[in-house]
Design brief:
- The protein has about 250 residues and is an alpha/beta fold.
- The protein has a single domain, classed as Rossmann fold (3-Layer(aba) Sandwich).
- It is about 45% helix and about 15% strand.
- It is built from eight helices and seven strands; from the N terminus they run βαβαβαβαβααβααβ.
- Strands 3-2-1-4-5-6-7 form a seven-stranded parallel beta sheet, sandwiched between helices.
- α4 links the parallel β4 and β5.
- The chain is globular, with a radius of gyration of 17 Å.
- The two termini are about 25 Å apart.
- The chain binds NADPH dihydro-nicotinamide-adenine-dinucleotide phosphate.
- NADPH dihydro-nicotinamide-adenine-dinucleotide phosphate (NDP) binds next to α1 and α4.
- NADPH dihydro-nicotinamide-adenine-dinucleotide phosphate binds next to α1 and α4.
Length: about 250
């Protein structure tokens, strides 16, 4: 499937590393103007920008924390001033802080919920205000099957991801009449920094659970995001597309 996003502007949070970078690059290749955001890893952001020098006129980086409402308000003010319009928001930024519940610190609970779930709320709230005025839009949240199945040691992460899906389903009903769709892409194990810190034996165990017997690639996740963000996907709304190799 060849996607065409010329004349469209896309915001990808956490768009400078891992899955977000793959999504941003796929949109660039499909002709979009891309605003890729990140929180603190400036060297990864610079490396991403350098690797995409070919697209320098269509690639824009912004640094802020999605969990901070004031940061998000300032970001959207900047977007309104510097870009006429945007059509697509990908809520991709996310973290994990794994621990069993009995040992989980309040800080680790809060950090995960505030980044993954509250960040999605902040970004989506400001985005729909803009998209509703223009009567068109696509929002895609990057969630996880762990939100549905649960996982020992990841209750904070699972709750945040289930919350993002419930949030998307509700928001999709609020904005559908304005030609805005809200969906989720739920990737399984994808080879990024996100799982790089897992011990090798644990990675092997995870691999054993994947029916297609390999981890997924960021390009495979990006393809699903572009599919849902396509203008022709107008009747796909409030749903979750799993990219898991059949977990
Ligand atoms: P990475 O750790 O590779 O990248 C995370 C990105 O999110 C980085 O760009 C990071 O910015 C950004 N980020 C983190 N916290 C904030 C914040 N508070 N404000 C703004 N940006 C922030 O993760 P992945 O690419 O692997 O994961 C991306 C998404 O996919 C996450 O939502 C994750 O839950 C989900 N996912 C990942 C899976 C996997 O196997 N990899 C599986 C299922 C879901 P910076 O670079 O500055 O740190």
């Amino acid at each position: 499937m060849n996607f065409d996003f010329k004349e469209q502007t896309v915001i990808v949070t956490g768009g400078t590393r891992g899955i977000g970078r793959g999504v941003a690059e796929a949109f660039l290749a499909a002709g979009a103007q891309v605003i890729a955001t990140y929180r603190s890893d400036t060297s990864a952001a610079q490396a991403f920008q350098k690797a995409n020098e070919n697209y320098q006129d269509r690639l824009h980086l912004r640094q802020f924390d999605v969990s901070k409402h004031d940061d998000v308000v300032a970001f959207f003010k900047d977007v309104e001033e510097n870009f006429k319009q945007f059509e697509i928001l990908v809520n991709n930024s996310g973290i994990r802080r794994d621990s069993v519940v009995g040992m989980m610190s309040v800080e680790d609970w809060d950090a995960v919920i505030h980044t993954n779930l509250t960040g999605t709320y902040h970004m989506s709230k400001l985005a729909v205000q803009h998209l509703m005025r223009h009567r068109y839009g696509r929002i895609v949240n990057i969630t996880s099957p762990i939100g549905r199945y649960g996982f020992a040691g990841q209750a904070n992460y699972a709750a945040s991801k289930a919350g993002q899906e419930a949030f998307a389903r509700s928001l999709s009903k609020e904005v559908a009449s304005r030609k805005i769709t809200v969906n989720c892409v739920s990737p399984g194990f994808i080879d990024t920094d996100f799982i790089a810190d897992l011990p090798e034996d644990q990675k092997k165990k995870y691999l054993g659970q994947v029916p297609v017997k390999r981890f997924g690639t960021v390009a495979e996740v990006a393809r699903a995001v572009l599919f849902l963000a396509d203008r022709d996907s107008a009747y796909i709304n409030g749903t979750v597309l799993e990219i898991t190799g059949g977990l």
